[in-house]
Amino acid sequence: MTSGFNSPGKRVPLHDLAALVPDGASLALGGSFLHRGPFAFVRELIRQGRKDLEIIKQSPGYDIDILCRTGVASRARAGIVAMEGNFGLAPWYRKAVEAGTLKLEEHACATLTAGLRAAAFGVPFQPCAGIHGSDLPALNNWAYLEDPYGSGDGTYVIPAIRPDFAVIHASEIDRLGNVRVYGTHHWDRIMSRAAGSVLVVAEREVETAVFEAQPEMTLIPYFMVQGYSVVPHGAWPGSCTPLYDIDYPAVERYMDTEQPLQAHLDIAPELRENANV
Fold first, then answer.
1. How many CB atoms neighbour CB 265 within 10 A?
2. 189-218 pLDDT, tens per residue?
3. From the centroid of its chain, how far is CA 61?
4. Per-residue burial over 208-239, b = 16 or more CB atoms within 10 Å of its CB, e = otherwise
5. Which of 44, 128, 210, 268 is the most exposed place for a label (fewest CB within 10 A)?
6. pLDDT at site 275
7. Alpha carbon distance 181, 164 (integer Å)
């Protein structure tokens, strides 16, 4: 972990937070589908013209779709990819895979989680049940190990997956970098433990006393967080429970191929005055 992570002063504007990610980096993106994804951060990567990023996520949707649409993502390790039931598949992601502009390592959610767990635990691979009979092991050349304890059973093992960054959208953060998420945290915890660095976009900053009063609510401790920004409604057009729901009309406009993408980017909440300071 980079030195200085334990010190205060981690809050930076969104522009500076996204600038920490170089071209070619691998990013694990928190949230799930249209729920509490770090979408303001993703859009800032687009504005900064980032290239050749690898996206790692069990259930991406809007995030990977818009990164494919703008040519920012060139590689992905993903499970199910969709814009959820209301909107169907992620069209720009599908086009990128079909055109070969996005190199995909296809996973089940469980196999991707196993790879992240291996990295978090500091081991080269992690066993994963439930994929016997599927094409995934052969597709990815995953090894099969017999039980060394002699049960006669065996299991596939998934190589460790260590992203350069985990990017998390949080409900609350304090000045030290302690992170709290209300509602389900999806795979954010294991992503943060597996990655080389953790970057956070939070809805609001609260006093450290709030975390001290309920330490069990801390999802990611301060010493794991390199930097953070505060961006209200930063998960737009997705939801951030219990603060706001999905902006369905905004997603519909994004999905409308007749609408220019720039019009969508120009109304994002992170562009509002002082939103990312």
1. 17
2. 999 999 999 999 999 999 999 999 999 999
3. 11
4. eeebeeeeeebbbebebbbbbbbbbbbbbbbb
5. 210
6. 52
7. 22
Cα–Cα distance measured from residue 24 to residue 151, given in angstroms and rounded to the nearest whole number:
43
| Buried-state track 167-199, b at ≥16 Cβ within 10 A, e below 16 | bbbbbbbbebbbbbbbeebbbbbbbbbbbebbb
String of DSSP letters for 100-161: TSSEEEE--HHHHHHHHHHHHHT-SEEEE-S-TTSSHHHHHT-EEEE-TTSSS-EEEEEEP-
Q: How many CB atoms lie within 10 A of CB 203?
A: 23
Which fold would CATH assign to domain 14-109+161-270? Glutaconate Coenzyme A-transferase (3.40.1080)
Q: Among residues 165, 228, 170, 162, which one has the least CA distance to residue 197?
A: 165
Side-chain-facing half-sphere of 15: CA atoms under 13 Å? 6
Encode pLDDT of 231-245 as tens digits.
999 999 999 999 999
Q: Give the count of beta carbons closer than 10 Å to the beta carbon of residue 54.
A: 19
Find out whether 126 and 118 touch, Cβ atoms under 8 Å: yes
